[in-house]
Amino acid sequence: MDTFKRLKQFYWPFKSYFIWSLLALLFVTGMTVLYPVILQFTIDHAVRAENYDLIPYLVIAIIGVMSIKGLAVYIHQYFGDLFGITTVHRLRDSLYKKLQFLPFRYYDNAKTGDLMSRLTGDVETFRFFLSFGCAQVVNFILLVGFSIAVMFYYSVPLTLLTMAMLPFLAIVVAKFDKRVHPGFRGIRKSLARLNTKVQENVSGMHTVKALSQEDQEIFRFAKSNEDYRQKHLDISKIWANYFPLMELIGNLSAVVLLAYGGYLTIQGSLQPGELVAFFSLIWYIIGPIMNLGFIINMFSQSKASGERLLEVLDEDERKDLVTSNAKQPNLVGEVVFKDVSLTYGEKNLPALKGISFEATRGKTIGLVGATGSGKSSIIQLITRYYERSSGQILIDGRSIDDYSLKDLRSQIGVVLQETFLFSSTIRDNLAYGKPDARMDDIIAAAKRADAHEFIVTLPKGYDTVLGERGLGLSGGQKQRIAIARAIIMDPKILILDDATSAVDMQTEVKIQKAFREVMKGRTTFIIAHRISSVKLADEILVLEDGELSERGTHTELINSNGIYRRIYDIQNQDQEYVLQQA
Ligand SMILES: Nc1ncnc2c1ncn2[C@@H]1O[C@H](COP(=O)(O)OP(=O)(O)OP(=O)(O)O)[C@@H](O)[C@H]1O
Fold it and tell me: Which one Pfam family would you cite for this protein (predicted)?
């Protein structure tokens, strides 16, 4: 129950829908129990007493009962659905909101397919229980309660015998629940793995094809698919065992009661009509008890889903992103690192060790170093995607912690190596960081980023809808859109993760030109794989295993004959000669 208690904030505000649904259910159950009573009256007081004048009134009574029941079913169903739908609408919103504020650290290990199945499948299962399952539980209590009350009215000993049989049914139900709950959790996990597999396969289709891994992929999918099938089969087996047993116990109970009821009728302490009514009422009890399996099934599924939803909702979020009281800072864009270190996780080695530098207003800092040397990690700290382990980072002389994440990031423009574009129009993608940007500003930014020229040649220009992740555009084109996107934000600090290593020379020249355009008047950090990208930087920081090994201008570093010089030589001079020297 703890799961439902903890999710209370989502359904409790809509309790009035649930109450209406329950009130209607009360009528439905009441009317249902009235049927056998009318039947008994018809047999004992109309037919056996040859009081045939009563028949038309009894017909009217049955029509009346049916009509009220029909209306009550409608209200019960409608408000039940409204309760479930409205609750999960709020739940989905909260989950999505949560995903926006979870730190990068969470996404390091999160799997898209798994998250997708939590936000869709698990939420739906939960809704189904609220809309339908919850009412079933109440229906069970009402129907069994009402029926037993009427049964007591007809015959106390027969009712007591009926109640003596119920524990047998209850034991089977309890055993069933114990086995079925872990099974459902397994199914939901397995489905999440299946979704992850499909999602990763579609996203990584280029890699799959490039490395000819289609057969391997089919094999891996088949394994996940088989696991899902097996988990379903396991549950089916539990069901298959459960149903005949319930059916058998139910029927045996009915036979015993019928025998005893028949004896009481022959004795004359029970009227034949009462026996018929009693027999109908017994099924109103046995039916729901057998159905309890379904209800428990639903309850187990929704509990398993609720647990998975809580796992997301319970994650620690970056609260400072939403609760900023600080005024929007008007930054100059000065960045200072003082003896900064970063270790990503307890098990990891330090990614940065004692880094210190000053990036004054409007200056360009180049970051150079081998792969894994810590270039991106410096950027992760400036944007506070990750938090430093020690040291101080100052922005305009104030600790970076004094700024809210939202304010800080609104002043930092990032153009990543891999540009992510949404499957929406080019205009929307350009204005992503500033949705209220005017069209004139968007076009001006696109011109400065050298993107306007190719955008207008597209079939619908700025209204061209892009495929997922910007499919349909070349790497260089995507990059230029990303640059325009950064220009529109008008940031004081600019971070350019040099993507030019992946494009041809002509595109590189164009992108470099666009970079230079956007860098004017902003403090810029360039992560460079080619020396040509940082040649003009005011200071170049050379990283080696997370430490600053050299620093200076291009000319200074060339003259110092260190690692920078070596990279430069490899890239610009007689490569073969250098490799021979190695
Ligand atoms: N999110 C992360 N979690 C754990 N370790 C990480 C994470 N990101 C980077 N690292 C580790 O930190 C070290 C520095 O990585 P970083 O990405 O800063 O290097 P880089 O110089 O930018 O490399 P590249 O040129 O390949 O992009 C590496 O050893 C890397 O494995």
Answer: ABC_tran
Give the position, in ligand 1's atom list, of the atom nearest the Cα of 386.
Answer: 1
Tell me, in angstroms, the distance from the centre of ligand 1 to residue 378's CA: 10
Residue located nearest, by CA, to atom 16 of ligand 1: 374
* CA distance to 345, 358, 463, 510, per residue, from 460 (Å): 47, 45, 5, 23
The phi, psi pair for 319, rounded to 5°, reads -65, -35
Judged by DSSP in three states, 199 sits in helix
Is 534:496 a contact under the CB 8 Å cutoff? no
Helix (H) and strand (E) counts in the chain:
22, 10
Domains belonging to the chain, first-starting first, are 2-319 (1.20.1560.10), 332-408+494-501+522-582 (3.40.50.300), 412-490 (3.40.50.300)
308 lines ligand 1 (CB under 6 A): no
The confidence band for 323, taking pLDDT boundaries of 50, 70 and 90, is very low
**Contact call for residues 333 and 361 (beta carbons, < 8 A):** yes
Q: pLDDT tens, 130-173?
A: 888 888 888 888 888 989 999 999 899 999 988 888 888 778 87
Can you state the angle between helices 272-313 and 156-203, rounded to 10 degrees? Answer: 30
Q: What is residue 15's predicted lDDT score, i.e. its pLDDT?
A: 92
Q: Is the dihedral of CA 543, 549, 552, 557 positive or negative?
A: negative
Cβ-proximal residues to 440 (8 Å cutoff; 6+ apart), any chain: none
Instruction: Transcribe 277-324 into DSSP letters.
Output: HHHHHHHHHHHHHHHHHHHHHHHHHHHHHHHHHHHHHTS---GGGT--
Q: How many residues does the chain have?
A: 582
pLDDT at 500: 61
Secondary structure (H, E, C), 236-289: HHHHHHHHHHHHHHHHHHHHHHHHHHHHHHHHCCCCHHHHHHHHHHHHHHHHHH
Q: Rounded CA gap, 192 and 186, in Å?
A: 10
- Cβ neighbours around 51 below 10 Å, total: 12
Instruction: Give mean pLDDT, residues 439-446.
Output: 89
Give the nearest ligand 1 atom to 104 CA.
1
372 lines ligand 1 (CB under 6 A): yes
- C-alpha distances (whole Å) from 577 to each of 216, 568, 570, 571 are 42, 13, 9, 12
Closest residue by Cα to atom 6, ligand 1, is: 344
pLDDT at 322: 47
- Summarised one tens digit per residue, pLDDT across range 75-86 is 999 999 999 999
Sequence-ordered list of residues with C-beta below 8 angstroms from that of 142, at least 6 positions apart, any chain: 25, 26, 29
Q: Which amino acid is at 92?
A: R
Give 12: exposed, middle or buried? Use CB within 10 Å, 0-12, 13-18, 19+. Answer: exposed
pLDDT > 70 in the chain, percent = 93
Mean pLDDT of 89-102: 90
CA–chain centroid gap for 124, Å, is: 12
Q: What is the ipTM for the molecules in this complex? A: 0.95
- For residue 31 the two structure tokens come to 């009317």
